[in-house]
Amino acid sequence: MKRALLALALALLAGCGARIPDAAQGLRDSKALIGATSRYDAARFKGPWLVRDSFGDGVAQVALVETTKGPAFQLCTQVGCGDGGTLWLAQKQGQGRYALSRPDGSTRTLWVLWVDEGFRTAVVGNPAGDFGWILDRSASGGADRIAAAREILDFNGYDTDQLRIRQ
């Protein structure tokens, strides 16, 4: 019975993942499955998130905000978005998956790979593997959640040895 349940769980996980042929910048193994979390809830995800760990990207804060053109992600280089940040309009592509675009034509995908039950800590990245962040609502604390977030990045094929702590 346990083997049957394990096989079913693995089949379900495989169905939620996506294989992407090329990994950008060597941050993740392109052969590893990657999937967005089914726990994602846009209403609970809204608001500011601090980048606690990253793969060298200059972003310090991420916020899901509402604009006159619909939902958007604001990527800021300073905590508190004092610099105004870069606004990426977000088009929902599925559960926890967004296609982001800027007026200058730049595009990026953003997937929410994991979020804890209290929506205090999250992991975002994308199948291309050109970025990955551990986000948290607070600048400190939650060591157990941050450790779990690192495990999620590892599970999704990211090279966690390249993570940079931003605290």
Give an overview of the whole structure:
It is built from 3 helices and 9 strands. By secondary structure, the protein is of the alpha+beta class. The chain has a single domain, classed as Lipocalin. The termini are far apart.
TL;DR of this structure?
By secondary structure, the chain is α+β, with helices and mostly antiparallel strands. The protein has helices spanning 2-16, 42-45, 143-155; strands at 47-54, 61-67, 70-76, 86-94, 97-101, 107-115, 121-125, 132-136, 164-165.
Total beta-strand segments:
9
- What CATH calls the topology is Lipocalin
User: What order do the strands of the largest sheet run in, or round the barrel if closed?
Assistant: 1-2-3-4-5-6-7-8
Mean pLDDT: 84
The total tally of domains equals: 1
- Approximate helicity band: 10-25%
Q: What would the principal axes of the Cα set say about the shape?
A: globular
* Helical segment count: 3
CATH arch. level architecture: Beta Barrel
Give the C-alpha Rg: 16 Å
Q: What is the top-level CATH class? A: Mainly Beta
Topology:
Blueprint: H1 2-16, H2 42-45, E1 47-54, E2 61-67, E3 70-76, E4 86-94, E5 97-101, E6 107-115, E7 121-125, E8 132-136, H3 143-155, E9 164-165
Labels describing this entry:
alpha+beta; Lipocalin; 8-stranded antiparallel barrel; 3 helices; 9 strands; 19% helix; 34% strand
